[in-house]
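Forum: Protein Structure Q&A
Topic: Joint prediction for protein chains with partners

I've read a bunch of threads here and the consensus seems to be that you should model interacting components together rather than docking separate models afterwards. I'd like to see that in practice. Below is the full input, 725 residues plus whatever partners are listed. Could one of the regulars post the assembled result?
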Amino acid sequence: MTVRKLGLALGLAAAAGLGAGAAQAEPLKIGIIESLSGSQTSTGRLFATAAEYVVDQINADGGFNGEPIEVIEYDNAGGTTGAADKFKQAVADGVHIVLQGASSAIAGQVTEDVRKHNIRNPGNELMYINLGAEALALTGEKCHFYQFRFTTTAPMRVNAMVDAMKEAGDLGTKVYSINQNYSWGRDMEDAIKAAADRGDYEVVDTVLHEVNKIQDFSPFVAKIKDAGPDTVMTGNWSNDLLLLMKAAGDAGLDVRFGTTFLDQVGNIANAGDTALGHYVAHPYNIAADDSDFAENYKAATGHYPVYIEPQTVNAIRTLGEALKTVDFGGGDVSVTEIAKAMENASIETPLGPITVRKDDHQAVLPVVVSKVVKDPKYPVDGTDLGFGVVKVVPGEDAIYEAQESCEMDRPS
Amino acid sequence: MEFLIVSTLNGVIYGLLLFMVSSGLTLIFGMMGVLNFAHASFYMVGAYIAYTITALVDFWVGLLVAPILVGLLGVLVERYLLRRVHEHGHAHELLLTFGLAFIFEELVKLFYGDFPVNYAMPDYLRFPAFTVFGTDYPFYRIFIGLVAVAMFVALYLLLSRTRAGLVVRAAERLPSMAEALGHNVPLVFMGVFGTGAAFAGLGGAVAGAFFPTNPNMALELGVIVFVVVVVGGLGSLEGSLIASLMIGLFSSFAVGLDWSLAGLFSLVGLGEWARALGGVFTLTLSSISGTIPFLLMLIVLLVRPAGLMGERN
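Posted by a regular:
Agreed with the consensus. Here's the joint model:
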């Protein structure tokens, strides 16, 4: 929350207090525990910006429970220990809903903290909305009633990508899988192997490498060349994706990349023409959205919604819909009631509806497959390149079966 | 054969890049005894300055100006920060430079944003130098290697063959004696620190056009650069060259080798058993290639604590 907004909130609170001893409504407090410093700032800041954009709109429409919704930012400094510390602080500050998204490792910490807190404090629960952490375990063995995930997972992205690339005739018959050696990369590798029949291809080789430790990907490119694939599929993000693509481009390797995070800000600027023709499967592409969302967002924040911003906006909009169906009459906020309302909430987006699956609280949302093209509707990173829509896969087709490992205790 | 040649090429060039960044650190430590944690930050600042100048004027002007400006920055850091804490010993110097690294990172984010910037080599440098076994070998990688070799030769000659080098070495060994002989020791130190920073700046300007230039680049390379200096022997220029090349080659070869403990066990007929156990037994060498430098550092520290070419072995 900015100082100005804090001042406004305090001012409003003071004004309400002066109102001849009127009963004080409990404002809904949202805590964003995100990487606002350190190496993941570029992503963490986007989550916060997009979430606050929607909360500002809800507040402009009258807020919730007779009060404006308060947003408090907590910097987890990019680590799980930081997140655990800031979670305690958020609890002390009386936060009801926690938002986070920039790392599956941190998400694992936050969701466990929330679960334990709720066991120890019945009647005083917290809710966690996962905006971007995609590890399957979060809606598998780690799932619980107070956690909701509003982004895709590896099978959703890979299945959509395979379908779209096959339809476009760009998939080929040999696929190489290179991924980062942690939960996300392993999920991706499993999904790429599992989709082989669907896409009618053979996985020629798979490689897992360390996250953000490799400066020189040319040895990996030599290995890819040996295997002779038509398409390289990777869940790599940030430097690991850029370095891989650049090394492949410099070596003159004639392969198509199927990626999941190519739309991260700065990637296209850095990869340049090397990125042309490569694919990305992502939860949203504003080029497929003919509403005025993109312009409104730009007017409020100064830039078009990019990367993980649209999915964050959709997550908080869904929360807003859920809030419309509960009424605490200006009294105490019950997080359990909000969580129950979330299960039934849905929104319409120009790309299709978004709903929440009750079994594991995974959002059922459309997946867009895009391709880097010249002179698109929305150029990115100050280049003449951007993401052209190849296929929009509706939520019900993109979703995978709920994992059996999810055993959810529901409040009565 | 193809694997051997391609891996060697890749490894040598990556090693030379590592040397380019770590040479300045080695120089500063060898001559001043200061372990500069902010060294990789100078590398980052060099890349950002070169990016700015390339956008305004020209790529080559950027390569020329970036080391000069970063060198000046180094001089300022030495004169107004490091010198003040020098008398309190190494711990203070270390903490100061450690803090500086974070400040540089946040400052870069403040001016250039959180995202990678579009710093790229000019198009006329973007061509394959030659083709090995059907793979283009980018000219720019060779260019990076050449700059690193030139840096090594220049530094080596400067320190071992010139009067300036003699004074610098004297100032490090016996500062009071050098001072008594009429040499301005603080000025010498300032010069050494500035030169070390300038070398990092040049490294950033050259490598930043090939690798992504982003606010995390110092963090990413910072650790590995320390490994180079430790493996090579603190302060030894030759040592850090050897260590850089070793790390480059080891990482490069490791990627191509799908060796695992299970493979080792299968030599004695226990392969199936080891594979069934999974975990560490099926971990392939390629999936831990980024850890090889640290493994190398551990071994070197155990066997030769002062590093390969360190003086106190």
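Chain B has 13 helices and two strands.
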